[in-house]
């Protein structure tokens, strides 16, 4: 982070502006981990406190004046780098085109048995797509049938490798209706919640957002997420048939077996320290009601980086 040594941030008599500047920097610091500048509208949306528009504008003006933050085009950043704005615009344009595909894929995935809700997650949910972007999905399944649903969906995904479309079907986070509340509660998971785009469902997505209202502690704007998450999708004959076949003790045993089988395979991958095509460690945390990326391989490192950025800001601020 850059700044002007020896300058006070704002007059001590104006703690409202001082605190608002800290909140603004927290937004910029988060997105700075991805070299992503943000607009004034986005700053307001991701603030960790409610604020009057004039207060936000004045805080931004003072931060710019003291060169604690920088503006290029309509975007703000902690970095004095004009190229970031151009890169962001290109990534946004690519994301807009990819979103059309993502919605069609989500509608198709909803046809699978026991799928109750689908949301677009990852970088695309934040309107970002670089040249190697995947389409990530968050999926809610029926209670106690997560592993039947996940297995069928991932068997289909194997076919997509034949036509080079596997990056359209990154189904990397599952929960079922018995575990709608996210266990890890921090700024990273709150960001994923507030940016998650509900696409298909039978009302379960609304229940999911309501179950995770703890995210308002980090982002007050999350409070309206459930109200804006109405989705609808038809149930299809294949979906109804498979669910009828497995809504019994045989289905219970099959779901348990598939959970154990998948957990064993992924534990082996972790033990062997395998990496994906991006060089990141492969890991999965599994349970009866969830299947999610191992937080130790990405989430924890991002939280640590974010903490370091805020510490650097506090040091700069107090000079």
H/E element string? HEHHEEHEEHEHEHHHEEH
Low-confidence stretches: 1-8
Average pLDDT value?
Answer: 90
Beta content comes to 5-15%
Description:
By secondary structure, the protein is an alpha+beta fold. It folds into 2 domains: 67 residues, Arc Repressor Mutant, subunit A, CATH 1.10.10; 204 residues, no CATH class. It is built from 10 helices and 9 strands. A 6-stranded mixed sheet has the order 7-4-5-6-9-8, sandwiched between helices. Helix 1 crosses helix 3 and helix 1 packs antiparallel against helix 10. 30% of the residues are buried. The N terminus is likely disordered.
Features:
10 helices, 319 residues, alpha+beta, Arc Repressor Mutant, subunit A, elongated
Short structural description:
By secondary structure, this protein is α+β, with helices and mostly antiparallel strands. The chain has helices at 15-32, 40-46, 53-65, 83-109, 146-160, 187-195, 204-211, 237-246, 249-271, 299-317; strands spanning 38-39, 70-72, 75-77, 115-121, 136-141, 170-176, 197-201, 284-287, 290-293.
Give the topology, please.
Layout: H1 15-32, E1 38-39, H2 40-46, H3 53-65, E2 70-72, E3 75-77, H4 83-109, E4 115-121, E5 136-141, H5 146-160, E6 170-176, H6 187-195, E7 197-201, H7 204-211, H8 237-246, H9 249-271, E8 284-287, E9 290-293, H10 299-317
Parallel strand pairs: 5-6
Antiparallel strand pairs: 1-3, 2-3, 4-5, 4-7, 6-9, 8-9
């Amino acid at each position: 982070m850059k700044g002007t040594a020896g300058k006070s941030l704002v007059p001590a008599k104006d703690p409202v502006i001082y605190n608002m500047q800290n909140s603004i920097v927290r937004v910029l610091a988060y997105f700075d981990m991805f070299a992503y500048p943000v607009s004034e509208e986005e700053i307001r949306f991701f603030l960790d406190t409610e604020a009057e528009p004039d207060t936000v504008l004045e805080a931004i003006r003072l931060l710019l004046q003291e060169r604690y933050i920088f503006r290029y085009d309509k975007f703000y950043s902690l970095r004095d780098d004009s190229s970031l704005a151009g890169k962001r615009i290109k990534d946004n344009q690519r994301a807009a085109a990819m979103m059309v595909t993502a919605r069609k894929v989500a509608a198709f995935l909803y046809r699978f048995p026991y799928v109750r809700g689908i949301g677009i997650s990852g970088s695309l949910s934040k309107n970002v797509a670089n040249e190697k972007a995947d389409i990530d999905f968050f999926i809610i399944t029926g209670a106690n049938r997560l592993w039947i649903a996940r297995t069928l969906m991932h068997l289909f995904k194997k076919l997509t490798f034949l036509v080079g479309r596997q990056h359209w079907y990154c189904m990397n986070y599952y929960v079922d209706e018995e575990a709608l509340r996210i266990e890890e509660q921090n700024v990273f998971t709150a960001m994923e919640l507030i940016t998650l785009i509900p696409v298909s469902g039978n009302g379960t997505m609304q229940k999911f957002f309501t179950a995770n209202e703890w995210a308002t502690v980090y982002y007050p704007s999350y409070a309206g997420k459930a109200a804006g998450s109405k989705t609808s999708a038809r149930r299809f004959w294949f979906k109804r048939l498979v669910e009828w076949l497995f809504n019994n003790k045989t289905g219970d045993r099959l779901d348990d077996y598939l959970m154990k089988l998948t957990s064993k395979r992924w534990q082996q991958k972790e033990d062997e320290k395998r990496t994906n095509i991006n060089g990141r460690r492969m890991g999965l945390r599994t349970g009866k009601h969830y299947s999610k990326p191992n937080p130790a391989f990405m989430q924890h490192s991002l939280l640590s980086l974010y903490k370091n950025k805020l510490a650097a800001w506090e040091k700069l601020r107090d000079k």
